[in-house]
């Protein structure tokens, strides 16, 4: 069962990482439209990556000869989300620290441009807030936990819902 969780969690983490990379390669962060499309591609990757809970549940069913009970099924979903989150967190650190060290600067410059503010106290306050967030995420451990936690938060929802849907679709 553990290998099943690791396998599908790793596949989910790779899906997230590949789609995030493709999103930033295809949609550069140099204007608001492509910036939003790049971010959307990353979120789609998270949703598709966590959908790997479904084949993990199918793998458990094949191993057991029946669908796993509800609590173990939720555990499988949480395990897949944990593995996927770790992989995506590590990917984020590699991407933003090694492959594209200017990524966070570009990302938060677009975030600031996207606010519609150009000057004044609101602009200064927003710029200070975004720069603090950028500086926080530039620390590798913080960047890892921020991205992994985003996956884990969404993964909890998936892990609680998909076992119910799976049992309903497969007729127990």
TrEMBL record:
InterPro entries: DUF4199. Keywords: Membrane, Transmembrane, Transmembrane helix. The chain crosses the membrane at residues 5-27, 33-57, 69-95, 144-166. It holds the Pfam family DUF4199. This is DUF4199 domain-containing protein. It comes from Maritalea myrionectae. The lineage of its organism: Bacteria, Pseudomonadati, Pseudomonadota, Alphaproteobacteria, Hyphomicrobiales.
